[in-house]
Amino acid sequence: MKMVRLWHWRQKVWQSLNFLKTVPEQGEQLMEKLRAWGCDVEGALERFIGDEEFYISCLKMTTEDLGFEELGEALREGDAQKAFDSAHTLKGVLANVGLTPMFEVIVRIVEPLRAGQMENLMPIYEELLQANQYLKGLLEEME
Questions:
Q1: Global confidence as pTM
Q2: 117-121 LR contacts (CB < 8 Å, sep 24+)
Q3: For residue 83, how many other CB atoms are within 10 A of its CB?
Q4: How far apart are CA 5 and CA 22, in angstroms?
Q5: What is the per-residue pLDDT across 88-129, written as a single tens digit (0 to 9) for each?
Q6: Which of 41, 49, 71, 100 has the fewest other C-beta atoms within 10 Å?
Q7: Which residue stretches of 1-141 are H helix?
Q8: Alpha carbon 55 to chain centroid, angstroms
Q9: CA 115 and chain centroid, separation
Q10: Cβ contacts of residue 125 below 8 Å, gap of 6+?
């Protein structure tokens, strides 16, 4: 599963190169909107060695991460282990790219799953999907 995800991300990096042909002001506007949303842009940029273009491309790839779909599928099927694995992986991705608002939502899914509890997680999952749509909207404003 992790190799498939790694391959998926690698392909998306190459596909994202055209996305990066933006005006620098648009990138700064995006960073300001992310900060206003509560994202840890500075911490994420440290992890990305200050490479803002690469960071933005990874944000775009994050919105398309297969983990969102896998998590929903596992929750619908009642597969706690698969749901935990997907949610835990997403938690790491969201933390690394500094998407604090989404990270805070995924934690509310991971912790019950860690305890083997699957009740009432679909509304939280829907909240996560709404946050992902919001991020997609911010990124589309740059195009």
A1: 0.82
A2: 118/75, 118/78, 118/80, 118/83, 121/75, 121/83
A3: 25
A4: 27
A5: 999 999 999 999 999 999 999 999 999 999 999 999 999 999
A6: 49
A7: 2-15, 24-37, 41-47, 52-63, 66-77, 80-96, 100-114, 122-140
A8: 12
A9: 23
A10: 71, 72, 75, 109
Q: Are 106 and 87 in contact (CB under 8 A)?
A: yes
The encoded tokens of residue 86 equal: 């997907």
Question: Under DSSP, is residue 118 helix (H, G, I), strand (E, B) or coil?
Answer: coil
For residue 42, give both structure tokens: 């500075």
Q: How far apart are CA 21 and CA 2, in angstroms?
A: 30
Return the DSSP state at 117: -
Burial class (CB in 10 A: 0-12, 13-18, 19+), 101: middle
Query: Residue 7: CA atoms inside 13 Å, Cβ hemisphere, count?
Result: 4
Contacts of 21 (CB under 8 A, 6+ apart): none
